Amino acid sequence: MAVLKSIKQKEKIYIFKAFDNDKSESPAVFVFSRFPFADELFPLAKQKNILDSDFVKSFDNTQKSKEKLVEHIINTMIDNITNNRINYDLFLKECIDRIENLIYDNKEIKTINDFLNLPQEAVQKIAQELYLYAKTEDEFSIEEKKI
Predict the structure, then answer these.
(1) What span, in angstroms and rounded, lies between the C-alpha atoms of 126 and 99?
(2) How do the pLDDT tens digits run along the chain, 147 residues long?
(3) Does residue 15 contact residue 28 with C-beta atoms inside 8 Å?
(4) In terms of domains, do 74 and 102 share one?
(5) Beta-strand (E) ranges in 27-135?
(6) Phi and psi angles of residue 105, each rounded to the nearest 5 degrees, phi first
(7) Residues 72/66, Cβ–Cβ less than 8 Å
(8) Closest CA to 133 of 2, 8, 14
(9) Helices and strands (DSSP H and E) totals, the chain
């Protein structure tokens, strides 16, 4: 009989490394309420289908309509590429319980909403690190158990 054993699980409390936070005497930490499932994504927006648009349904095959169709296809492709980006706001609100020991501009940052009001560059850098950490897999092994 095979027995699944945990070797290494992620910690719910994470000390981020951005801005040398991990080198501080009292580093700021994010406490996860949960980790995303392996197939769980946080897309910025839903993918668009060119053929489902109102424009294509009313296409009349004129030259002007053909030009608009090309423009519509290009714009939809650009939107879909952009939509593959991660919605860090949603990820943080879904997976982070609280923030500890983080101060910015003499104000303690405790909630995700507080955090999202920080300068965008800082939010992006820390959120990306948190997301990559959250998506790393726990390590398991199988061990044979004699019956």
Answers:
(1) 12
(2) 778 777 778 899 999 999 999 999 999 999 999 999 888 878 765 555 666 666 666 667 778 777 777 777 777 766 666 555 788 999 999 999 999 999 999 999 999 999 999 999 999 999 999 999 999 887 777 777 776
(3) yes
(4) no
(5) 29-32, 96-100, 102-104, 107-109
(6) 55, 45
(7) no
(8) 14
(9) 5, 7
Single-letter amino acid code for the residue at 74: I
State the total domains in the chain.
Answer: 2
> Beta partners for 98?
31
- Write the DSSP string, 45-57: SPPP-GGGSHHHH
- Pair 131, 111 in one domain: yes
Cα gap 27→20, rounded to integer Å = 9
Same domain, 91 and 36: yes
Crossing angle (nearest 10°) for helices 120-135 and 88-95: 60
pTM above 0.85, yes or no: no
* Structural domain harbouring 63: 50-83
109 vs 117: CA distance, rounded Å? 9
* Residue among 84, 146, 81, 92 nearest 117 (CA): 92
